[in-house]
Design a protein that fits this description.
Order of helices and strands of chain B: EEEHEEHEHHHHHEHEHEEHH
Largest sheet of chain B: 6 strands, mixed
Strand content of chain B: 15-25%
Radius of gyration of chain A: 19 Å
Structural class of chain A: mainly alpha
CATH class of chain A: Mainly Alpha
Distance between the termini of chain B: 47 Å
Shape of chain B: globular
Distance between the termini of chain A: 19 Å
Largest interface: A-B, 28 and 40 residues
Strand order of the largest sheet of chain B: 6-7-8-3-9-10
Helix content of chain A: over 70%
CATH architecture of chain A: Orthogonal Bundle
Oligomer: heterodimer
Strand content of chain A: under 5%
Order of helices and strands of chain A: HHHHHHEHHHHHEHHHH
Number of helices of chain B: 11
Structural class of chain B: alpha/beta
CATH topology of chain A: ABC transporter involved in vitamin B12 uptake, BtuC
CATH class of the domain at 5-92 and 169-262 in chain B: Alpha Beta
Number of strands of chain B: 10
Number of helices of chain A: 15
Radius of gyration of chain B: 19 Å
Number of domains of chain A: 1
Largest sheet of chain A: 2 strands, antiparallel
Chain lengths: 318, 263
């Protein structure tokens, strides 16, 4: 039986997440893996917004910031459990994306990029300047999720690195599953249709404004969850999570791996998360090599790394 | 039978130029009405006003008794208006089947959360749309190409795909903007048959077309535009005899065609 694209993507993902630890030379790599998964969750959201619907956001780190600081602030000020704080952050991100997206998504192309950029910078500034609440640029502590302790009591003793590796891996699989469901669903088809031709999508009855807004809200929730997981994992958070560079990173990871496919984008997240680890040898030239790699990929493999590689493997007919 | 679509004194001005001025006509169910005129006569502009792409400056568009002047295209789609485009608007990176399914958007759409979680209700909606789309593709002779990426199809096939997508809405009125443009004789004839068949099923058809032979053959009624104004209307025979029409359009066109034939 031939596997559907969805099943094979999920299968590859599950196998990679389960088997990769065999190759880990030290416990440190669990941490790198968890970081890849956290980034990949946000990038999967970008795939929905940019890959499916063709809309560009340069401010999604703003939503990651909201998710991250929800986990830092809500347990202290509202007495919420950190897991509920994650949900609260996602809800705030969704509402905010809905409010901000309504006017912004009427804009096209680079206007949309600039408007979302402005939004990201706004969130980042608030986090930097509201010192009493957020601790400003010095950042603030984030309470423990407490799940690892529960697992230990239940007889499953994981190191901190192992716990976050598998926990974020599971969330990533769920995130990918939802995104893949969407791709072949009526909503996903309408999103891809408006990406292909807005005017034609309108004439078949697609409410373009509404659909774009839905994609924007969904991708904002992805970014928010990613930010929350980063905060909970590090037990500490700084406003950098909402910074401009983080927004650019998300888009770059998606485009580098192949923004049209979930697996490609996750691959992009892995490459761009790992590269700086490898490049520490070059220390000062890290940014330079990173920039060069991205330029070369865009020039020679404009569809992204993974789709280009797969095409080579399968032969030109595919 | 009463008019399904009535266009009343429609006009629009672009930078001081009256692109379309005071154009009126009606289309009844099952009727094929063609709009003809020389290049730049305002045919596509008229189409874009009727289908909600442009906001008309003057006049009214009445669909099924409801004033729909300047209404957004997706709302017109819900009211039974569907169209194709002069310069193809196909979803290139989607498969042929997905293009056809997207015509079922209004029937298959549902709560986004149901789609995200792939709930049975979402799968049912998608499956029904897919079954309908496959039937439609068979009807326009594209069933064998269903799984191919639309961008790889021939021009004539894409034209038929666009008509299939428009038919997926089960429209009451279908607007076709030069459906045979760029097609060879065989493809033109195929499209010809398809249009006649659709009209026979009771769908009102409004057509903009350059291929005069096709227009004369299939139209019940012809509206002639020149410089944005309606200069004549009537059945094919009377329009082709109308001196104003011959002067503005048929004459020059027939001459050039004759010259080409001789050369």
């Amino acid at each position: 039986m031939k596997l559907s694209a969805k099943s094979s993507t999920l299968l590859v993902l599950v196998v990679l997440i389960l088997l990769s630890p065999v190759l880990f030379p030290s416990g440190y790599y669990y941490r790198v893996g968890a970081l890849i998964f956290v980034n990949a969750i946000a990038v999967t959201g970008i795939v929905i917004l940019t890959g499916y619907a063709g809309q560009i956001s340069l401010g999604h780190a703003g939503f990651a910031g909201i998710g991250a600081y929800a986990c830092a602030l809500a347990p202290v000020h509202l007495g919420l459990h950190p897991s509920l704080a994650l949900v609260l952050g996602a809800a705030i991100s969704a509402v905010l994306a809905w409010l901000v997206g309504r006017p912004i998504l009427r804009l096209k192309g680079y206007y949309l990029g600039v408007a979302t950029l402005g939004f990201g910078i706004l969130i980042s500034m608030i986090l930097n300047n509201e010192r009493q609440l957020t601790g400003g640029p010095d950042g603030m502590e984030v309470p423990d999720l407490g799940l690892r302790g529960l697992l230990r009591d239940a007889g499953l003793d994981l190191t901190n690195g192992q716990f976050w590796y598998f926990f974020c891996g599971i969330v990533l699989i769920a995130a990918a599953w939802l995104a893949l469901n969407l791709f072949n669903s009526p909503t996903g088809r309408a999103l891809r249709a408006l990406h292909g031709s807005e005017v034609a999508a309108r004439t078949v009855g697609v409410d373009v404004a509404r659909l774009k807004l839905q994609a924007f809200v969904i991708s904002a929730v992805y970014a928010s969850v990613s930010g929350s997981l980063l905060a909970l994992q590090n037990k500490f958070i700084t406003p950098d999570v909402a910074g401009f560079m983080h927004s650019i990173e998300m888009v770059t990871m998606a485009v580098l791996g192949g923004v049209g496919s979930v697996l490609g984008a996750i691959f992009g997240a892995a490459v761009l998360t790992l590269l700086p680890q490898v490049l520490t040898v070059f220390a000062e030239y890290e940014q330079l090599v990173l920039g060069l790699v991205m330029m070369l990929v865009m020039i020679f493999l404009p569809q992204g790394l993974l789709p280009s590689i797969l095409r080579k493997v399968r032969g030109k007919d595919e | 039978m009463t008019a399904l679509l009535s266009v009343e004194g429609l006009g629009i001005t672009f930078g001081g130029l009256k692109a379309v001025n005071d154009v009126s006509f009606t289309v009844r169910p099952g009727e094929i009405v063609s709009v003809i005129g020389p290049n730049g006569a305002g045919k596509t502009t008229l189409f874009n006003m009727i289908s909600g792409v442009y906001q008309p400056g003057r006049g009214r568009v009445v669909l099924n008794g409801e004033d729909v002047t300047g209404m957004a295209p997706h709302l017109l789609a819900r009211r039974g208006m569907s169209r194709t485009f002069q310069n193809l608007q196909i979803f290139q990176s989607m498969t042929v089947l997905e293009n056809a399914i997207s015509g079922y958007h209004l029937k298959e759409r549902g709560p986004v959360l149901a789609d995200l979680f792939n709930l049975p209700s979402s799968r049912r909606r998608a499956a029904a749309a897919q079954a309908g789309a496959r039937e439609l593709l068979a009807r326009v002779g594209l069933d064998r190409a269903a799984e191919r990426e639309a961008g790889n199809l021939s021009y004539g096939a894409l034209k038929r795909l666009e008509i299939a997508r428009a038919l997926a809405l089960s429209p009451k009125i279908l607007l076709l903007d030069e459906p045979a443009a760029g097609c060879n004789a065989v493809e033109t004839e195929e499209i010809d048959h398809l249009i006649a068949e659709v009209a026979k099923s009771g769908v009102a058809i409004l057509l903009v077309e350059h291929d005069m032979k096709m227009v004369m053959r299939i139209s019940n009624h012809i509206v002639v535009l020149d410089h944005g104004e309606k200069i004549a209307e009537g059945d094919p025979a009377s329009v082709s005899r109308n001196p104003a029409v011959i002067a503005a359009y048929l004459g020059t066109d027939a001459e050039t065609e004759a010259a080409h034939a001789d050369g």
